[in-house]
Amino acid sequence: MTPSGDAVRFDWRRGGAAAGALVAVLLLLGLVVLVAWSNGERDKALELERHAYDVTILTRSIDANVSRSEAALGRFALDADIKNSGNVYLSYWRLAGHQIGQLKRAASTTRDQQDRLAELQAIYDQLGAKFDNVARVITAHQGDLGISYYYAAAGPKADPPLQPALHAKLREIAENERTILQQRMERTRFFSARADRFTDYLSWLGLAVGIGAILMGAVAIQALRQFTYARRLAENESERAEVLEQAVRDRTHELWEANQALKAEAAEREAAEAQLRQVQKMEAVGQLTGGIAHDFNNMLAVVVGGVDLARRRLNGPRREVMAHLNNAMEGATRAAALTRRLLSFARSEPLLPERVEPRQLVGGMSDLLDRTLGERVRIKVDLAADTWPVYVDPHQLENAIVNLAVNARDAMDGAGRLKISTANVKVSANEVGDIRPGEYVRISVTDTGCGMPPEVKERAFEPFFTTKPVGKGTGLGLSQIFGFAHQSGGEVGIDSQVGKGTTVSIYLPRSSVQPPIRLHAATSRMNEEERVPGARILVVEDDPRVRTSTVEALQDLDYDPVACASGEEAIGIFDKQTFDLVISDVIMPEMTGPELIKILKEKRQDFAVLFVTGYVGESGSDSLIGHELLRKPFTVGALASAVATALQSSELPPTAAAAEAR
C-alpha cells in the first residue's frame, strides 16, 4: 500500500480501539451507576422496613404502659394509703402520652394513618381526663367514691368504653403498619434482586474490560502508572484519616471524662441536698417534740398536783377537795385540747363538715371579733355578694378566722386597721403552695402591723414556732390553720411586707356534697331526759383501765353494760346475747372497731353504734361515716350524751330488759 493508505489504516485501528475502550468505559460506568442506585434503593427499603418494625413495637409499648397505668390507678383506688401507686400511675400515663407523640412522628404519613393517629390522641385525652378525675377523687380521701369513679372510667361497663377503643385503635395502627411493612419487604426483595443482577453484569463487563486491557497494553501500562500514583495518594489520605480518627477518639475520651465528672458532681450535690432535707426534718421534729413535752409537762403538773392534793385532803373540807379536783380536770381538759390541735395540724382529726355560706359566717362574727380584739382595732368587712358555698367544719373555720384576727391584733400592738374579705377565685396548680387547680373561696385577713421578714414567713407554719414573748402564745395557731385548710382540701397563703402589714388567705374549695361524721365533744353535759335506763350495751375496749372506767360510768347511768377486750371476744358475746348498743374503740390490735361493726352488722342490724377514739388517722374517717363518735378523754356527762344520742338516733326498739327498766 501507499504510504498514504498505510496512514489511513493506522488511524482507523487507533480510532476503533479508542472507540471500543470508550464504549467499554461507558458501559462500566453505567453498570456502576445502576449498581449504586440499586444498592441505595435496597438500603432505603431496609430502613423503611426497620422503621415499620419500630412503629409496631412503639404501639405495643403504648398499649402496655396504658395497661400499667390503669393497674396502678386501680391499686391507688383500692387503697389510697399506698403512697407510690398514684406516682406510678401518673408516670406510666405520661410515658404513654410521650410515646403517642413519638408514634405521630414515626408512623406512616398516609392520610388514613394520620386520621387514626388523631383519633388515638382524642381517645387518650378523654381517657386521661377520666383517670385524672378518679385520681383527684382518691387524693381527696373520698374512699368508696374513688373506687366508683375508677370503675366508671375503666370498668367493663364504662360509658363510653374508651379503654377498649384505645387498644383497638392501637391494633388498627399496628395492622396498617404491618401492611405497609409487607409492601416495603416486597420492595426490598425487588431491589436486592436487581442489585444482584447488576452486580453479575458488572462482573462480566469487568472480565471483558480486563481482556480489552490486555489487548491495549499501552493503555494498561498508563492506567497502571495512574493507579500506582492514585494508590500513593490514597495511602497518604489514609494516613491523614488515621491521624484525624485518633484525634477524634482523644477528644471523645476527654468529653467522656468531663461528662463523668459532671455526673459525679451532680450525685454529690443530690446527696448533700438530701442530707440537708433530712437535717431540716429532724430539726422540725425536735422542735415539735420539745414544744409538746414542755406544754404536756405543765398540764400534767396541774393534773398530778391536783389529784395528789385532793387525795391528801379526802377527809378535809369538800370545797377544798373539789377545788383541787377541778384544777386537775382543767389541766386534763387543756391536755386533750392540745392533742386535738396537734391532730388537726397533722390532718388526722376528724372534722364535722357541712355546707357553709362564708358571707353569712364571716358577717355573723362581727360581735365576737369586736369583743375579742377590743375597741382600738378598727374592723372592716368586705364580703363578695356572690361568694360560693364551701363544705367545711364551721367551728374550725370560725376558730381559724379568730386565730388570724388575734395574731393580727398582736402584730399591730393592739391598735390598727383589720380587714376581713371574701372572694371567688380560680387558681392554677401550685399557684399557692401545693394547691390543686380549680375554683376556691378565698378568705383573707389583712392587718397594718409590723409585717414578717422572709426568715419568719418561711417558718410561720412550723408547730411551736412563735415570735411572741414567753407566755403569750403556743406557736400552734398558724400550724393548726394550715392543718385545717389542708384537711378541708384547700391551702393557706401569706403575703407580708416588713413595716406595711400582713395578709393571710385561706383557700377553700367550692362546695361538694359529702356525708358528715357526728362527733361528740369530750366534755358534753349530761341530759337526763335523753337517757334510756336499762339498755344493754356491749363495750369493746382493749385498754383494761379505760374499759373498767367506762363500764362503771355506764352502770352509774343505769345502763346494763357487758365488757370485752377484743373483736373476737365481742363477736362471741354478740352471738349469745342481744344488745341495744355497741361501744367500740376504733384502733385495736388484730381487728379495728369499724371492721368489728361491719361483721356484727352482717349478723344483725337492730343495734346502735358508738365509736370511741383518741386518734382516727390510722383507721381512716370514711369508715366512721354515719355513726356517732366520742373522743377520748371524755367525762361521764359526755359519755351519757353520746350514748343517749346513739340510742335515740338509731330509731330501734329497746330490748326487753331496757323496756322493763323503763
TrEMBL record:
Residues 536-647 form the Response regulatory domain. Its EC number is 2.7.13.3. It catalyses: ATP + protein L-histidine = ADP + protein N-phospho-L-histidine. It is an enzyme of class 2 (transferase). The chain crosses the membrane at residues 16-37, 201-224. Residues 255-284 form a coiled coil. The keyword Transferase applies. Residues 291-512 form the Histidine kinase domain. The modification 4-aspartylphosphate is found at residue 585. The keyword Transmembrane helix applies. GO terms for molecular function: ATP binding. Keywords: ATP-binding, Coiled coil, Kinase, Membrane, Nucleotide-binding, Phosphoprotein, Transferase, Transmembrane, Transmembrane helix, Two-component regulatory system. SUPFAM superfamilies: ATPase domain of HSP90 chaperone/DNA topoisomerase II/histidine kinase (SSF55874), CheY-like (SSF52172), Homodimeric domain of signal transducing histidine kinase (SSF47384). This is histidine kinase. It comes from Sphingomonas anseongensis.
